[in-house]
Amino acid sequence: MKVTVDVDITPEEMRKLFGLPDVEAFQRQLMDDIRERMHAGAEGYDPLKLFQPYMAGTLASWDFFQKLLTNLPATKTDADTPPAGRTR
Hints:
The protein is mainly alpha-helical. The chain has a domain at about 10-70. Helices cover about 55% and strands about 0% of the residues. InterPro entries: DUF6489. Pfam families: DUF6489.
């Protein structure tokens, strides 16, 4: 059996439905801060330095996730070990 549900609501209504915070003011402040930094250092504009404070935590979490997936095949679970007296 296949059940399909179509929901016709705005992103704002969806955020409220799931109890997520409204981050529009934060995003606006972030973009204003970025514009201000770009205008202040227009001659020596370096996009990596500009976004580094915002991306540091994100990149660290992706690095952790990548290491987790890389080491996953090396981990052994109880399901991999046959019961005592039995062989696979």
